[in-house]
Amino acid sequence: MATYLVLLACLCVGIQIFSGFADKLFLSIDCGGTANHTDRWGIDWVVDDGYIKTGEAAQVQNHGVYDSEINSLRYFSSQKKSCYVIPGVATGRKHMVRASFFYGNYDRKSSSPSFGLQFDGNHWVDVVTSSSQSYYREVIYAPKRNKISICVARTSPDQIPFISTLEIRELETGMYQTNGEEDVLLWTNRTAFGAKNFVRSFDFMVDGIKRNDDPIIPPYGTYVTDYNHGRDLTAGSKVSLVNTRDASLPPILNAMELFQLKTGLADGTSENDAPRSDLMIEIRSKTQYRSRIGRFQCRERAEIHGLGIRPPIRSLSQISNLHTMLCYGGRSRAMLVD
User: Which domain holds residue 154?
Assistant: First the structure.
């Protein structure tokens, strides 16, 4: 059979920002949620019971507009200020905190509230919510203590504060560094210069020859697999990923595997290779077990139907499931297979 070398390139996506920060705080809280869950981007969301003891949970009326974690919320009708407390924070390290709000007419009053938002006792922003649009804000700073507190505060007697989600990410050293240790970055706008859309599109090249029929565009949250069709590889073969003209993002490659390909399959194992494989063997008499180094010993005889022999065999009392026993002549040796 002919043997070829085939290259398999696995293009696995599903990468979200900050997801590679091992052993760093990466927390997503579904405020007012009823159960932990994983969203379509692979982010794990937890309910908020462990981070706050006040307020009441509710579901928005305008379902289907956003993902499930935005459709739940926690509102605070009796407290002037209510705070989430996040423990286990690395002091002096930059953290990104994102708070999201979607009124969604949860109280059926069609009156979206406004209120204040604070972090660690500092004023953050005045929140203005909407029945049809979500609202979020981000802050980046280095906490002074080993915990982060995020509070919503009532600014008008008839306005009830609420919150939909809370996300905390500890950042890598060097990210968003400023001159002062107490500097705070309040997110205002985010713009991608030089690109109307984010496009990742590229070709899979082997020795300068394109091996894919259409441009490879990895879908977010899943994977794409492509491979070298029928071309021999040598030790000097060059594999490359080349952007298409309309690409604004660079190629990505998560894994590459090399296989040896053999052609042709047999029709299966011949029945002559395993004669009497369906023989049922019954052991009629129990055997006794006596421990010896690497040996079993039998004091009784067993009858093996279908073979017509009755030699003494070694004990099987310590073996829970006997599938096959073969006894053969001489001094009555036995081969046991469990």
Answer: 26-171
